[in-house]
Amino acid sequence: MLEARSLMVLPRLLWRIQPSVLLAVLAHKARSLFVIASVALGVATLTVIVAAVDGAREKALEIVGLFGPDALLLMGGDMGSKAVGQRFNTLTLNDAKSISRSLPGVKAVLPMRSIRFVRVKYGNRNHETPAIVGAAAGYAAIWNWPLAEGRDLSAEDVDSGAKVALIGDAPAKQLFGDASPIGRTIFINQLQVRIIGRLAFRGITGGGSDISIDDRIILPITTLTQRLHHDRLTVHSIRVKFYDPQFMDDYSRNLRTLLRYQHRLATADPDDFTIVSATEILRFLTAFTGGIVVFLGLTAVVAMLVGGFVLANLMFLGVTERQEEIGLRKAVGATGIAITLQFLFEALYLTVTGAACGVVLGTALGALLSSFGLLSLHLSLKIILLALAAALAIALVFGLKPALKAASLDPIDALRGGG
Prior knowledge:
It contains 13 helices and 14 strands. It has 419 residues and is α+β, with helices and mostly antiparallel strands.
Protein backbone atom coordinates (compact mmCIF):
# COMPACT_ATOMS: atom_id res chain seq x y z
CA MET A 1 0.00 0.00 0.00
CA LEU A 2 2.86 2.32 0.92
CA GLU A 3 4.69 1.52 -2.32
CA ALA A 4 1.56 2.28 -4.37
CA ARG A 5 1.14 5.63 -2.62
CA SER A 6 4.80 6.49 -3.31
CA LEU A 7 4.36 5.70 -6.98
CA MET A 8 1.32 7.98 -7.13
CA VAL A 9 3.14 10.84 -5.40
CA LEU A 10 6.30 10.60 -7.55
CA PRO A 11 4.88 12.16 -10.76
CA ARG A 12 3.47 15.07 -8.73
CA LEU A 13 6.85 15.53 -7.05
CA LEU A 14 8.68 15.50 -10.39
CA TRP A 15 6.31 18.18 -11.72
CA ARG A 16 6.68 20.38 -8.63
CA ILE A 17 10.48 20.42 -8.69
CA GLN A 18 10.77 21.49 -12.36
CA PRO A 19 10.60 25.28 -11.68
CA SER A 20 13.39 24.93 -9.09
CA VAL A 21 15.45 22.87 -11.54
CA LEU A 22 15.11 25.46 -14.31
CA LEU A 23 15.86 28.37 -11.96
CA ALA A 24 19.02 26.62 -10.69
CA VAL A 25 20.23 25.92 -14.23
CA LEU A 26 19.61 29.50 -15.36
CA ALA A 27 21.03 31.04 -12.18
CA HIS A 28 24.49 29.55 -12.80
CA LYS A 29 24.88 30.36 -16.48
CA ALA A 30 28.66 30.11 -16.74
CA ARG A 31 28.75 26.74 -14.99
CA SER A 32 25.84 25.45 -17.07
CA LEU A 33 27.48 26.54 -20.33
CA PHE A 34 30.73 24.87 -19.31
CA VAL A 35 28.93 21.55 -18.68
CA ILE A 36 26.92 21.85 -21.91
CA ALA A 37 30.10 22.57 -23.90
CA SER A 38 32.01 19.63 -22.43
CA VAL A 39 29.14 17.19 -23.09
CA ALA A 40 28.59 18.66 -26.57
CA LEU A 41 32.21 17.99 -27.54
CA GLY A 42 31.92 14.37 -26.45
CA VAL A 43 28.62 13.85 -28.27
CA ALA A 44 29.97 15.61 -31.38
CA THR A 45 32.86 13.14 -31.40
CA LEU A 46 30.39 10.27 -31.01
CA THR A 47 28.23 11.65 -33.83
CA VAL A 48 31.13 11.85 -36.29
CA ILE A 49 32.37 8.38 -35.31
CA VAL A 50 29.00 6.65 -35.66
CA ALA A 51 28.24 8.46 -38.93
CA ALA A 52 31.71 7.62 -40.31
CA VAL A 53 31.46 3.95 -39.36
CA ASP A 54 27.95 3.67 -40.84
CA GLY A 55 29.17 5.45 -43.96
CA ALA A 56 32.16 3.11 -44.27
CA ARG A 57 29.91 0.07 -43.87
CA GLU A 58 27.48 1.40 -46.46
CA LYS A 59 30.33 2.11 -48.87
CA ALA A 60 31.72 -1.41 -48.31
CA LEU A 61 28.37 -2.96 -49.22
CA GLU A 62 28.18 -0.68 -52.27
CA ILE A 63 31.63 -1.78 -53.44
CA VAL A 64 30.74 -5.45 -52.96
CA GLY A 65 27.50 -4.91 -54.86
CA LEU A 66 29.33 -3.30 -57.77
CA PHE A 67 31.96 -6.06 -57.82
CA GLY A 68 29.21 -8.65 -58.06
CA PRO A 69 28.58 -11.84 -56.06
CA ASP A 70 28.87 -13.96 -59.22
CA ALA A 71 32.44 -13.06 -60.20
CA LEU A 72 36.07 -13.64 -59.30
CA LEU A 73 39.00 -11.39 -60.16
CA LEU A 74 42.39 -12.91 -60.92
CA MET A 75 45.49 -10.77 -60.49
CA GLY A 76 49.08 -11.60 -61.28
CA GLY A 77 51.40 -12.31 -58.32
CA ASP A 78 50.56 -13.46 -54.82
CA MET A 79 49.29 -10.27 -53.15
CA GLY A 80 49.49 -11.90 -49.72
CA SER A 81 53.22 -12.58 -50.09
CA LYS A 82 56.06 -10.10 -49.69
CA ALA A 83 58.70 -12.29 -51.30
CA VAL A 84 61.66 -10.41 -52.77
CA GLY A 85 61.79 -10.57 -56.54
CA GLN A 86 58.20 -11.82 -56.85
CA ARG A 87 56.84 -11.67 -60.40
CA PHE A 88 53.50 -9.99 -61.00
CA ASN A 89 53.12 -10.48 -64.77
CA THR A 90 52.19 -14.14 -64.36
CA LEU A 91 48.80 -14.23 -66.10
CA THR A 92 48.54 -14.73 -69.85
CA LEU A 93 45.92 -14.71 -72.59
CA ASN A 94 46.30 -18.50 -72.70
CA ASP A 95 45.19 -18.60 -69.04
CA ALA A 96 42.04 -16.72 -70.00
CA LYS A 97 41.38 -19.13 -72.90
CA SER A 98 41.92 -22.17 -70.67
CA ILE A 99 39.53 -20.81 -68.03
CA SER A 100 36.85 -20.15 -70.65
CA ARG A 101 37.33 -23.58 -72.23
CA SER A 102 37.95 -25.86 -69.23
CA LEU A 103 36.38 -24.39 -66.06
CA PRO A 104 32.79 -25.54 -65.33
CA GLY A 105 30.13 -22.90 -64.67
CA VAL A 106 31.93 -20.04 -66.46
CA LYS A 107 29.64 -17.47 -68.05
CA ALA A 108 32.22 -14.96 -69.30
CA VAL A 109 35.97 -14.31 -69.12
CA LEU A 110 37.47 -10.83 -69.43
CA PRO A 111 41.28 -10.53 -69.71
CA MET A 112 42.61 -7.01 -69.05
CA ARG A 113 45.82 -5.07 -69.00
CA SER A 114 46.42 -1.37 -68.43
CA ILE A 115 48.75 1.56 -68.84
CA ARG A 116 48.98 4.07 -66.02
CA PHE A 117 48.72 7.87 -66.27
CA VAL A 118 48.38 8.66 -69.95
CA ARG A 119 47.59 12.07 -71.37
CA VAL A 120 44.54 12.20 -73.66
CA LYS A 121 43.51 15.13 -75.82
CA TYR A 122 40.42 16.45 -77.57
CA GLY A 123 40.81 19.73 -79.45
CA ASN A 124 42.55 22.10 -77.08
CA ARG A 125 41.52 20.18 -73.96
CA ASN A 126 43.90 17.80 -72.18
CA HIS A 127 43.37 15.28 -69.41
CA GLU A 128 45.74 12.85 -67.72
CA THR A 129 43.77 9.69 -67.02
CA PRO A 130 45.10 7.26 -64.37
CA ALA A 131 44.27 4.17 -66.42
CA ILE A 132 43.98 3.18 -70.05
CA VAL A 133 42.53 -0.34 -69.87
CA GLY A 134 42.72 -2.89 -72.64
CA ALA A 135 39.91 -5.43 -72.39
CA ALA A 136 38.12 -8.16 -74.29
CA ALA A 137 34.60 -7.83 -75.66
CA GLY A 138 31.75 -7.07 -73.26
CA TYR A 139 33.73 -5.03 -70.71
CA ALA A 140 30.74 -3.07 -69.40
CA ALA A 141 28.43 -6.11 -69.29
CA ILE A 142 30.94 -8.38 -67.52
CA TRP A 143 31.68 -5.66 -64.93
CA ASN A 144 27.93 -5.00 -64.43
CA TRP A 145 28.70 -1.42 -65.42
CA PRO A 146 25.78 0.32 -67.17
CA LEU A 147 26.44 2.53 -70.16
CA ALA A 148 25.11 6.07 -69.95
CA GLU A 149 25.07 6.12 -73.75
CA GLY A 150 26.54 4.31 -76.73
CA ARG A 151 27.51 0.64 -76.94
CA ASP A 152 29.92 -1.86 -75.39
CA LEU A 153 33.09 -3.28 -76.94
CA SER A 154 32.27 -6.05 -79.41
CA ALA A 155 34.13 -9.19 -80.49
CA GLU A 156 34.62 -7.57 -83.90
CA ASP A 157 36.30 -4.55 -82.24
CA VAL A 158 38.73 -6.87 -80.46
CA ASP A 159 39.41 -9.17 -83.41
CA SER A 160 40.19 -6.27 -85.76
CA GLY A 161 42.08 -4.14 -83.22
CA ALA A 162 39.63 -1.31 -83.87
CA LYS A 163 40.56 2.19 -82.77
CA VAL A 164 37.47 2.63 -80.60
CA ALA A 165 37.00 3.20 -76.86
CA LEU A 166 34.64 3.41 -73.92
CA ILE A 167 35.15 6.54 -71.84
CA GLY A 168 34.61 6.95 -68.11
CA ASP A 169 32.53 9.73 -66.60
CA ALA A 170 35.51 11.76 -65.35
CA PRO A 171 37.49 12.10 -68.61
CA ALA A 172 34.22 12.60 -70.52
CA LYS A 173 33.41 15.65 -68.40
CA GLN A 174 36.97 16.98 -68.60
CA LEU A 175 37.16 16.66 -72.39
CA PHE A 176 33.56 17.24 -73.50
CA GLY A 177 31.78 18.98 -70.62
CA ASP A 178 28.04 18.36 -70.90
CA ALA A 179 28.22 17.41 -74.58
CA SER A 180 27.91 13.79 -75.70
CA PRO A 181 31.28 12.14 -76.44
CA ILE A 182 29.77 9.48 -78.72
CA GLY A 183 31.33 9.50 -82.18
CA ARG A 184 34.03 12.00 -81.25
CA THR A 185 37.71 11.30 -81.79
CA ILE A 186 40.34 11.75 -79.06
CA PHE A 187 44.11 11.36 -79.09
CA ILE A 188 45.78 8.91 -76.70
CA ASN A 189 49.42 9.86 -77.15
CA GLN A 190 49.48 9.90 -80.98
CA LEU A 191 46.71 7.31 -81.44
CA GLN A 192 43.35 8.55 -82.73
CA VAL A 193 40.46 6.75 -81.03
CA ARG A 194 36.71 7.10 -81.64
CA ILE A 195 34.41 7.05 -78.59
CA ILE A 196 31.63 4.45 -78.93
CA GLY A 197 30.30 4.32 -75.34
CA ARG A 198 30.23 6.27 -72.10
CA LEU A 199 30.31 4.42 -68.77
CA ALA A 200 27.80 5.50 -66.13
CA PHE A 201 29.08 7.36 -63.07
CA ARG A 202 29.94 5.16 -60.07
CA GLY A 203 31.68 7.52 -57.66
CA ILE A 204 34.06 5.10 -55.95
CA THR A 205 37.75 5.61 -55.31
CA GLY A 206 40.18 2.73 -55.01
CA GLY A 207 43.74 1.55 -55.00
CA GLY A 208 44.48 3.01 -51.58
CA SER A 209 44.33 6.52 -53.02
CA ASP A 210 41.89 9.16 -54.19
CA ILE A 211 41.89 7.83 -57.78
CA SER A 212 38.34 7.36 -59.01
CA ILE A 213 37.34 4.25 -60.95
CA ASP A 214 35.35 6.63 -63.16
CA ASP A 215 38.61 8.10 -64.44
CA ARG A 216 39.51 5.57 -67.14
CA ILE A 217 39.31 4.83 -70.85
CA ILE A 218 38.73 1.31 -72.20
CA LEU A 219 40.21 0.08 -75.47
CA PRO A 220 40.04 -3.34 -77.13
CA ILE A 221 42.93 -5.31 -75.65
CA THR A 222 44.33 -5.95 -79.13
CA THR A 223 44.39 -2.21 -79.85
CA LEU A 224 46.21 -1.54 -76.58
CA THR A 225 48.85 -4.23 -77.14
CA GLN A 226 49.40 -3.46 -80.82
CA ARG A 227 49.32 0.35 -80.68
CA LEU A 228 50.38 1.35 -77.15
CA HIS A 229 52.08 -1.63 -75.52
CA HIS A 230 54.77 -4.07 -76.61
CA ASP A 231 53.83 -7.06 -74.44
CA ARG A 232 51.16 -9.09 -76.25
CA LEU A 233 51.24 -12.22 -74.08
CA THR A 234 50.65 -11.27 -70.44
CA VAL A 235 47.65 -9.59 -68.84
CA HIS A 236 47.37 -7.78 -65.51
CA SER A 237 44.07 -9.31 -64.45
CA ILE A 238 41.23 -11.58 -65.55
CA ARG A 239 37.62 -11.22 -64.44
CA VAL A 240 35.68 -14.49 -64.47
CA LYS A 241 31.89 -14.41 -64.25
CA PHE A 242 29.86 -17.50 -63.35
CA TYR A 243 26.29 -18.65 -63.82
CA ASP A 244 25.44 -19.65 -60.24
CA PRO A 245 26.69 -17.43 -57.33
CA GLN A 246 25.87 -20.06 -54.69
CA PHE A 247 28.81 -22.21 -55.82
CA MET A 248 31.45 -19.47 -55.67
CA ASP A 249 33.63 -21.34 -53.14
CA ASP A 250 33.75 -24.37 -55.44
CA TYR A 251 34.44 -22.17 -58.46
CA SER A 252 37.31 -20.49 -56.61
CA ARG A 253 38.88 -23.84 -55.66
CA ASN A 254 38.54 -25.15 -59.20
CA LEU A 255 40.03 -21.96 -60.63
CA ARG A 256 43.01 -22.19 -58.29
CA THR A 257 43.63 -25.83 -59.22
CA LEU A 258 43.43 -25.06 -62.94
CA LEU A 259 45.85 -22.13 -62.73
CA ARG A 260 48.38 -24.03 -60.65
CA TYR A 261 48.30 -26.76 -63.30
CA GLN A 262 48.62 -24.19 -66.10
CA HIS A 263 51.60 -22.53 -64.39
CA ARG A 264 53.26 -25.89 -63.59
CA LEU A 265 53.51 -25.14 -59.87
CA ALA A 266 54.74 -27.89 -57.58
CA THR A 267 52.78 -28.83 -54.47
CA ALA A 268 55.18 -26.90 -52.24
CA ASP A 269 55.23 -23.82 -54.47
CA PRO A 270 53.09 -20.83 -53.46
CA ASP A 271 50.50 -19.44 -55.85
CA ASP A 272 51.85 -16.92 -58.34
CA PHE A 273 48.42 -15.33 -58.66
CA THR A 274 45.69 -13.90 -56.41
CA ILE A 275 41.97 -14.70 -56.52
CA VAL A 276 39.66 -11.97 -55.20
CA SER A 277 35.96 -12.53 -54.51
CA ALA A 278 33.15 -10.33 -53.24
CA THR A 279 33.19 -12.28 -49.96
CA GLU A 280 36.90 -11.56 -49.41
CA ILE A 281 36.40 -7.88 -50.21
CA LEU A 282 33.58 -7.67 -47.67
CA ARG A 283 35.65 -9.56 -45.09
CA PHE A 284 38.57 -7.19 -45.53
CA LEU A 285 36.41 -4.07 -45.42
CA THR A 286 34.52 -5.36 -42.36
CA ALA A 287 37.79 -6.05 -40.53
CA PHE A 288 39.06 -2.60 -41.50
CA THR A 289 35.83 -0.97 -40.34
CA GLY A 290 36.00 -2.97 -37.10
CA GLY A 291 39.44 -1.54 -36.42
CA ILE A 292 38.07 1.96 -36.95
CA VAL A 293 35.19 1.22 -34.57
CA VAL A 294 37.54 0.08 -31.80
CA PHE A 295 39.96 2.98 -32.18
CA LEU A 296 37.40 5.73 -32.60
CA GLY A 297 35.09 4.15 -30.03
CA LEU A 298 37.81 4.54 -27.39
CA THR A 299 38.18 8.16 -28.46
CA ALA A 300 34.45 8.71 -28.00
CA VAL A 301 34.47 7.04 -24.58
CA VAL A 302 37.36 9.25 -23.42
CA ALA A 303 35.55 12.37 -24.67
CA MET A 304 32.36 11.35 -22.88
CA LEU A 305 34.26 10.60 -19.66
CA VAL A 306 35.84 14.05 -19.77
CA GLY A 307 32.37 15.57 -20.05
CA GLY A 308 31.18 13.42 -17.16
CA PHE A 309 34.04 14.41 -14.88
CA VAL A 310 33.45 18.07 -15.67
CA LEU A 311 29.79 17.62 -14.76
CA ALA A 312 30.59 15.82 -11.48
CA ASN A 313 33.19 18.37 -10.35
CA LEU A 314 30.97 21.35 -11.09
CA MET A 315 28.01 19.71 -9.36
CA PHE A 316 30.09 19.02 -6.25
CA LEU A 317 31.16 22.66 -6.34
CA GLY A 318 27.51 23.67 -6.73
CA VAL A 319 26.47 21.60 -3.70
CA THR A 320 29.09 23.37 -1.60
CA GLU A 321 28.02 26.82 -2.82
CA ARG A 322 24.29 26.07 -2.42
CA GLN A 323 24.36 24.70 1.14
CA GLU A 324 22.15 27.50 2.45
CA GLU A 325 19.54 26.90 -0.28
CA ILE A 326 19.57 23.16 0.44
CA GLY A 327 19.32 23.76 4.20
CA LEU A 328 16.34 26.12 3.79
CA ARG A 329 14.50 23.68 1.53
CA LYS A 330 15.03 20.80 3.93
CA ALA A 331 14.05 23.00 6.91
CA VAL A 332 10.67 23.73 5.29
CA GLY A 333 9.98 20.05 4.61
CA ALA A 334 11.77 19.08 1.38
CA THR A 335 12.60 15.37 1.45
CA GLY A 336 15.89 13.78 0.53
CA ILE A 337 14.24 12.26 -2.56
CA ALA A 338 13.11 15.73 -3.71
CA ILE A 339 16.63 17.15 -3.32
CA THR A 340 18.17 14.15 -5.09
CA LEU A 341 15.72 14.37 -7.98
CA GLN A 342 16.26 18.12 -8.34
CA PHE A 343 20.02 17.76 -8.72
CA LEU A 344 19.64 14.78 -11.05
CA PHE A 345 17.25 16.71 -13.27
CA GLU A 346 19.63 19.67 -13.30
CA ALA A 347 22.34 17.30 -14.55
CA LEU A 348 19.93 15.73 -17.07
CA TYR A 349 18.83 19.10 -18.49
CA LEU A 350 22.45 20.11 -18.97
CA THR A 351 23.53 16.81 -20.56
CA VAL A 352 20.51 16.60 -22.89
CA THR A 353 21.12 20.20 -24.01
CA GLY A 354 24.79 19.34 -24.49
CA ALA A 355 23.82 16.21 -26.46
CA ALA A 356 21.54 18.24 -28.77
CA CYS A 357 24.30 20.79 -29.36
CA GLY A 358 26.76 17.94 -29.89
CA VAL A 359 24.62 16.31 -32.57
CA VAL A 360 24.34 19.64 -34.40
CA LEU A 361 28.08 20.28 -34.06
CA GLY A 362 28.96 16.72 -35.10
CA THR A 363 26.65 16.90 -38.11
CA ALA A 364 28.20 20.21 -39.20
CA LEU A 365 31.72 18.82 -38.73
CA GLY A 366 30.78 15.67 -40.63
CA ALA A 367 29.37 17.71 -43.50
CA LEU A 368 32.59 19.72 -43.61
CA LEU A 369 34.74 16.58 -43.70
CA SER A 370 32.50 15.08 -46.38
CA SER A 371 32.83 18.21 -48.52
CA PHE A 372 36.62 17.78 -48.47
CA GLY A 373 36.27 14.08 -49.31
CA LEU A 374 37.92 13.04 -46.03
CA LEU A 375 35.01 10.92 -44.80
CA SER A 376 31.88 9.32 -46.15
CA LEU A 377 29.20 9.89 -43.52
CA HIS A 378 25.79 8.36 -43.06
CA LEU A 379 23.49 10.22 -40.67
CA SER A 380 20.61 8.30 -39.11
CA LEU A 381 18.12 8.26 -36.25
CA LYS A 382 20.53 5.94 -34.42
CA ILE A 383 22.86 8.88 -33.81
CA ILE A 384 20.14 10.87 -32.01
CA LEU A 385 19.17 7.87 -29.89
CA LEU A 386 22.80 7.20 -28.97
CA ALA A 387 23.31 10.87 -28.07
CA LEU A 388 20.26 10.83 -25.77
CA ALA A 389 21.39 7.57 -24.20
CA ALA A 390 24.85 9.03 -23.61
CA ALA A 391 23.32 12.16 -22.03
CA LEU A 392 21.19 10.05 -19.70
CA ALA A 393 24.14 7.84 -18.75
CA ILE A 394 26.38 10.83 -17.98
CA ALA A 395 23.66 12.47 -15.88
CA LEU A 396 23.02 9.31 -13.85
CA VAL A 397 26.60 8.06 -13.48
CA PHE A 398 28.28 11.39 -12.78
CA GLY A 399 25.36 13.32 -11.30
CA LEU A 400 24.06 10.78 -8.79
CA LYS A 401 26.85 11.11 -6.21
CA PRO A 402 26.66 14.94 -5.97
CA ALA A 403 22.85 14.66 -5.80
CA LEU A 404 23.04 12.15 -2.95
CA LYS A 405 25.55 14.35 -1.16
CA ALA A 406 23.15 17.31 -1.41
CA ALA A 407 20.27 15.16 -0.10
CA SER A 408 22.33 13.90 2.86
CA LEU A 409 23.21 17.38 4.18
CA ASP A 410 21.93 18.15 7.64
CA PRO A 411 19.72 21.27 7.38
CA ILE A 412 21.22 22.94 10.47
CA ASP A 413 24.83 22.28 9.37
CA ALA A 414 23.92 23.37 5.85
CA LEU A 415 22.50 26.69 7.10
CA ARG A 416 25.55 27.27 9.25
CA GLY A 417 27.85 26.43 6.38
CA GLY A 418 25.92 28.67 4.03
CA GLY A 419 25.98 31.53 6.51
